[in-house]
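Lab notebook: predicted structure, single chain.

Context: the supervisor wants predicted structures on file for every construct in the current expression panel, including those that have not yet been purified. This is the next one on the list. No modifications to the sequence; it matches the entry in the shared construct table.
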Amino acid sequence: MKKRTNIIVIVLSIALSMWGCQASQGSKTYTPGQAQTPLSVYYGTVLKVSEVTIQSQQTGAGAVGGAIVGGVIGSTIGSGRGRKLATTAGALGGAAAGNAAEGAAAQKPALEIEVEMDDGRVLVVVQEKDDEFAVGDRVRLIKSPDGTYRIRQ
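Prediction complete. Output recorded below exactly as produced.
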Protein backbone atom coordinates (compact mmCIF):
# COMPACT_ATOMS: atom_id res chain seq x y z
CA MET A 1 0.00 0.00 0.00
CA LYS A 2 2.81 2.42 0.89
CA LYS A 3 4.59 1.81 -2.44
CA ARG A 4 1.35 2.54 -4.32
CA THR A 5 0.83 5.74 -2.34
CA ASN A 6 4.36 6.90 -3.16
CA ILE A 7 3.75 6.31 -6.88
CA ILE A 8 0.48 8.28 -6.74
CA VAL A 9 2.21 11.17 -4.96
CA ILE A 10 5.04 11.24 -7.53
CA VAL A 11 2.67 11.15 -10.51
CA LEU A 12 0.46 13.90 -9.08
CA SER A 13 3.49 16.05 -8.21
CA ILE A 14 4.77 15.81 -11.78
CA ALA A 15 1.33 16.65 -13.17
CA LEU A 16 1.05 19.66 -10.86
CA SER A 17 4.45 20.98 -11.86
CA MET A 18 3.52 20.72 -15.53
CA TRP A 19 0.22 22.58 -14.97
CA GLY A 20 2.22 25.60 -13.84
CA CYS A 21 4.13 25.76 -17.13
CA GLN A 22 2.83 28.42 -19.46
CA ALA A 23 3.83 29.72 -22.84
CA SER A 24 6.48 32.40 -22.91
CA GLN A 25 5.40 35.96 -23.68
CA GLY A 26 8.86 37.33 -24.35
CA SER A 27 10.43 38.86 -27.41
CA LYS A 28 12.34 35.77 -28.52
CA THR A 29 9.63 33.07 -28.44
CA TYR A 30 7.20 32.54 -31.27
CA THR A 31 4.10 30.37 -31.46
CA PRO A 32 3.77 27.79 -34.25
CA GLY A 33 1.16 30.05 -35.87
CA GLN A 34 3.66 32.92 -36.05
CA ALA A 35 6.41 30.83 -37.65
CA GLN A 36 6.62 31.25 -41.42
CA THR A 37 3.95 33.95 -41.26
CA PRO A 38 4.75 37.45 -42.54
CA LEU A 39 5.06 39.83 -39.59
CA SER A 40 5.12 43.63 -39.84
CA VAL A 41 8.21 45.47 -38.63
CA TYR A 42 8.33 49.04 -37.34
CA TYR A 43 11.22 51.00 -35.85
CA GLY A 44 11.36 53.34 -32.91
CA THR A 45 13.23 54.68 -29.89
CA VAL A 46 12.74 53.59 -26.28
CA LEU A 47 11.36 56.41 -24.11
CA LYS A 48 10.86 54.56 -20.81
CA VAL A 49 11.41 51.09 -19.33
CA SER A 50 9.70 49.86 -16.15
CA GLU A 51 9.86 46.49 -14.43
CA VAL A 52 6.41 44.91 -14.01
CA THR A 53 4.93 41.46 -13.36
CA ILE A 54 2.75 39.40 -15.68
CA GLN A 55 0.17 37.57 -13.56
CA SER A 56 -1.50 34.69 -15.40
CA GLN A 57 -4.98 33.67 -14.34
CA GLN A 58 -4.98 30.81 -11.88
CA THR A 59 -6.90 27.70 -12.94
CA GLY A 60 -7.44 26.12 -9.52
CA ALA A 61 -5.47 23.07 -10.65
CA GLY A 62 -2.83 23.74 -8.00
CA ALA A 63 -5.38 23.65 -5.19
CA VAL A 64 -7.09 20.53 -6.54
CA GLY A 65 -3.83 18.67 -7.13
CA GLY A 66 -2.47 19.78 -3.76
CA ALA A 67 -5.63 18.56 -2.02
CA ILE A 68 -5.32 15.16 -3.70
CA VAL A 69 -1.65 14.79 -2.84
CA GLY A 70 -2.19 16.04 0.72
CA GLY A 71 -5.16 13.72 1.19
CA VAL A 72 -3.20 10.72 -0.06
CA ILE A 73 -0.29 11.51 2.22
CA GLY A 74 -2.62 12.14 5.17
CA SER A 75 -4.39 8.83 4.58
CA THR A 76 -1.15 6.98 5.34
CA ILE A 77 -1.08 8.35 8.88
CA GLY A 78 -2.82 6.69 11.82
CA SER A 79 -5.90 4.50 11.72
CA GLY A 80 -9.65 4.82 12.25
CA ARG A 81 -10.83 8.30 13.21
CA GLY A 82 -7.24 9.59 13.41
CA ARG A 83 -6.67 8.59 9.79
CA LYS A 84 -9.80 10.48 8.72
CA LEU A 85 -8.60 13.60 10.53
CA ALA A 86 -5.10 13.25 9.03
CA THR A 87 -6.57 12.79 5.55
CA THR A 88 -8.77 15.89 5.94
CA ALA A 89 -5.92 17.96 7.35
CA GLY A 90 -3.61 16.75 4.57
CA ALA A 91 -6.17 17.64 1.91
CA LEU A 92 -6.73 21.13 3.34
CA GLY A 93 -3.02 21.79 3.78
CA GLY A 94 -2.26 20.42 0.32
CA ALA A 95 -4.93 22.61 -1.24
CA ALA A 96 -3.45 25.72 0.38
CA ALA A 97 0.09 24.77 -0.63
CA GLY A 98 -0.96 23.87 -4.19
CA ASN A 99 -2.83 27.15 -4.59
CA ALA A 100 0.20 29.11 -3.38
CA ALA A 101 2.53 27.18 -5.69
CA GLU A 102 0.29 27.81 -8.71
CA GLY A 103 0.09 31.51 -7.84
CA ALA A 104 3.88 31.80 -7.65
CA ALA A 105 4.33 29.90 -10.93
CA ALA A 106 1.81 32.20 -12.62
CA GLN A 107 3.94 35.31 -11.99
CA LYS A 108 6.63 36.23 -14.49
CA PRO A 109 9.02 39.19 -14.40
CA ALA A 110 8.30 41.53 -17.30
CA LEU A 111 9.09 44.92 -18.77
CA GLU A 112 6.74 47.73 -19.73
CA ILE A 113 8.51 49.42 -22.65
CA GLU A 114 7.34 52.78 -23.99
CA VAL A 115 8.49 53.39 -27.57
CA GLU A 116 8.15 56.38 -29.85
CA MET A 117 7.81 54.93 -33.32
CA ASP A 118 9.44 56.63 -36.28
CA ASP A 119 5.99 57.71 -37.54
CA GLY A 120 5.41 59.65 -34.28
CA ARG A 121 3.04 57.20 -32.56
CA VAL A 122 3.85 56.19 -29.00
CA LEU A 123 3.19 52.60 -27.94
CA VAL A 124 3.61 50.73 -24.67
CA VAL A 125 4.34 47.02 -24.89
CA VAL A 126 4.51 44.65 -21.92
CA GLN A 127 6.55 41.50 -22.47
CA GLU A 128 8.51 38.98 -20.43
CA LYS A 129 11.90 40.19 -19.30
CA ASP A 130 14.11 38.24 -21.68
CA ASP A 131 16.22 41.12 -23.00
CA GLU A 132 17.63 44.40 -21.70
CA PHE A 133 16.37 47.77 -22.91
CA ALA A 134 17.49 51.30 -22.02
CA VAL A 135 16.11 54.75 -22.74
CA GLY A 136 17.36 55.89 -26.15
CA ASP A 137 17.80 52.37 -27.60
CA ARG A 138 16.74 51.94 -31.23
CA VAL A 139 14.41 48.96 -31.41
CA ARG A 140 12.27 46.94 -33.80
CA LEU A 141 8.59 46.51 -33.05
CA ILE A 142 7.30 43.28 -34.56
CA LYS A 143 3.54 43.13 -35.08
CA SER A 144 1.81 39.75 -35.38
CA PRO A 145 -1.33 39.26 -37.48
CA ASP A 146 -3.34 39.04 -34.23
CA GLY A 147 -2.33 42.64 -33.39
CA THR A 148 0.18 41.83 -30.66
CA TYR A 149 3.60 43.47 -30.63
CA ARG A 150 6.99 42.39 -29.36
CA ILE A 151 10.06 44.59 -29.04
CA ARG A 152 13.47 43.41 -30.17
CA GLN A 153 16.91 45.05 -30.21
